[in-house]
Amino acid sequence: MNENRHILVVEDELDLAELLRYNLNISGHTSEVVHTGQGALNAVAKKQPDLIILDVMLPEMDGIEVATRLKADESTAAIPIIFLTAKATDEDQIRGLDAGADDYVTKPFSVSVLLARVDGALRRSSKHAGTGSILELGPVHLNTDEHEARVNESSIRLTLTEFRLLASLMAGPNRVLSRRGLISNAIGPGITVTERTIDVHVAAIRRKLGKHGSMIQTVRGVGYRIVEPTD
Ligand code: CA
Known about the structure:
By secondary structure, this protein is an alpha/beta fold. Helices cover about 40% and strands about 20% of the residues.
């Protein structure tokens, strides 16, 4: 499934960059290494990677800025990004998630953990690419073209905002999305609604998911995530 995947590594620590290149290559991926944010944007423009491993702390243009620019451009918005960060505080994680990170690995990390995350992100993105607009997690099935939602085989009726919220969560299972991030995904950037509005929509979605409502977890002080059902 993951053969011939091209990974862009953006890391200004040369030894670490080389270590990543070596390990990606022996895992069967091709990779390109750049050391600056601008280098990353240039590399993406030349050859679009299947995934980007992006260090947050880079000289001049940092990783958050690089991700923000890539996510703002329709032609590059879908490229999965895994941030490497030395900062493990929640606030930094939220900034990263709002900038469109698909996953996070905090330094220092083990290479095998990072490679597992890479494979997970590639699997999620190829699943989405391969089936167009189908999002599935456990019993929950969304078809974003048809605006159709099902739990097991039963259709459920979601409002447009509820549908978009659920789709945002399902696009990255286990990933925490801040309320602000959810507002911008589901309602639109720059539109003023209170974070409480999101709580109300999430409560409605949970109700409609019935016994699977607990798949949507509240992460206190942060936001929400969706996980596979435990039964
Ligand atoms: Ca760095």
